[in-house]
Amino acid sequence: MKTISSKTAIVTGAGHPKGIGRAICRQLALAGVNIAALDLTDAVGLDTVAQDLESLGVKACSIECDVTSPMSISNAVEQVRRSLGPVDLLVNNAGIAAGVSDFLEIREDDWTASLAVNLLGTVNMCSAIIPNMLKQDRGVIVNIASLAGLGAIEGIPANYTASKFAVVGLTKQLALQYASQGIRVNAVCPGSITTQMYDNLMQRMSDENGISLEDAIAIESESIPLGYSANPDQIGHAVVFLASDKATYMTGVCMPVAGGMSAGL
Description:
Elements: E1 8-12, H1 20-30, E2 34-39, H2 46-54, E3 60-64, H3 70-84, E4 89-92, H4 108-136, E5 139-144, H5 158-178, E6 183-190, H6 196-209, H7 213-222, H8 233-243, E7 254-257
């Protein structure tokens, strides 16, 4: 999609080989976007991301960054500017899936972590990037929320659901505030995607319900009208679209990419 070729993007949570963030980086690179891939120091494979992306013909860098730390973000953003120039696109993908299905069994530290990473990590990144987008009179932000941010889904921890509802609300408020200043803010709300988080969720469903892992996966697939859990690249396609000139009249949209799966209550 040549409308975003040669632009520069920051993608958070981009380290894990099976993650949505890595897939987003790959699809943006295929569209010609230069990529700064951010993740924690212990993220699996972060050191290989830039090399993989550069093999697709774009400029790229991999930077260790903790989205819960404004200082870490400030240092990372400065590195991006030195390496790749002004940031045109921010993709807030970093997130965690802590907690258990039973509300009363969720630990306080699971609530704290969910809000710190899923919500405030997004807030921190936006706070660091929006001022420069305002100076440029343009910019695109895509937040990776969740289908669980649009409705309560059975089996999903309440702390995760609450944090993703908050990301959806933040997306809409930022879209409203900055629409007249050339900044579009949208969200992608993935359903069942075959990432490392999916693997953990399926194992937890198996353990909590006393069923085999295969049965847990089958139950999950049966809840999806299209009949299967998606590859992370399909979320990357949605991000590329929202970042492109094909979506210039879209802001404040929180788009489910879920194979028809219901967002629940």
